[in-house]
Design goal:
Length: about 290
């Protein structure tokens, strides 16, 4: 405990002595983490939209016109008993035609030339949860093999594009996060390095009087961690202010959520970690302790 108190006091003293460099470092860290926070906010909201779309994925199973009422009920029961299926709703030929007419009310001429209803009856199948594209494909294949089912559709190509977009989004998050992390470490490293140079005589005296390596390193590491924490806090403040302004600008019907508590605390933790790492590298490289 005395060592920690001493290190904290030394770190605060260094803050006052080199306040200009410290403020510059905090500002750069704040800007770096603000950029990362903006990207995380966009990513989080895009993922929310994507997961909402995935939750609404349905499988449509078209059935033969010759299917009797008893066969329809039996087929519905078999579909609903499949793992992953939440609900199977039967849509008759007449219902399908009525829905088509509602959706294309401005193109009534499309069906005027027809003497019979060309649309097949079907089951609209909702899933309990969307796990993956392979899960949907597996359920679709199982339904397609049932007697009375003539065809199955579930937007295979569309789901493939959605998964590809999700994959790119995650990799972009990792790449941008790694870039910002290295940039922040570099900034903190150079700031602490200048502090080390300015206090070399003091460090030598501490070594002569028997100060341990850990006692010399700890103040610098705490200084870097405090810089990272303050930078992260400032970035969250500006991010929230920008978020509230954006909420006033987006049209009605659109929703947007701020970073979750876990992500916000994670951003602060990231700032502290980057500050500690940057300081540790600087001390290890430039101090012979």
């Amino acid at each position: 405990m005395p060592t920690l108190i001493f290190a904290l006091r030394e770190a605060l003293t260094s803050f006052r002595r080199t306040r200009v460099m410290v403020l510059i470092s905090i500002a750069i860290i704040a800007m770096s983490l603000l950029l990362f926070g903006v990207f995380m906010l966009v990513t989080q909201n895009v993922e929310t939209v994507v997961r909402g779309v995935q939750a609404k994925v349905e499988i449509v199973a078209y059935v033969a016109d010759s299917l009797s009422l008893a066969d329809q009920q039996h087929l519905r029961q078999r579909i609903q008993h499949l793992p992953g299926v939440k609900l199977a709703t039967f849509v008759s030929k007449a219902d399908a035609l009525a829905e088509f007419q509602r959706d294309f009310a401005d193109r009534a001429d499309l069906l005027t030339a027809l003497t019979t209803n060309p649309l097949p009856a079907s089951f609209q199948i909702r899933l309990t949860t969307y796990e993956s594209r392979d899960q949907v494909a597996t359920i679709a294949r199982q339904i397609e093999q049932l007697d009375g089912v003539t065809d199955v559709m579930y937007g295979k190509e569309w789901l493939a594009r959605l998964d590809q977009f999700f994959f790119i989004l995650r990799w972009a998050s990792l790449m941008i996060g790694a870039t910002i992390a290295f940039a922040s470490i570099f900034v903190i490293y150079n700031t602490i390095k200048l502090t080390v140079y300015s206090r070399q005589m003091e460090i030598k005296i501490m070594q002569y009087v028997g100060a341990t390596a850990w006692m010399i390193r700890l103040p610098f590491m705490l200084e870097g961690m405090m810089q990272g924490m303050l930078g992260a806090g400032i970035s969250l403040l500006f991010l929230y202010l920008g978020y509230t302004q954006l909420l006033r600008m987006i049209p009605e019907g659109f929703s947007m959520v701020f970073l979750t508590g876990e992500v916000s605390f994670g951003l602060v933790g990231l700032g502290i970690m980057l500050g500690g790492i940057g300081s540790w590298i600087s001390i290890r490289r430039f101090l012979d302790v």
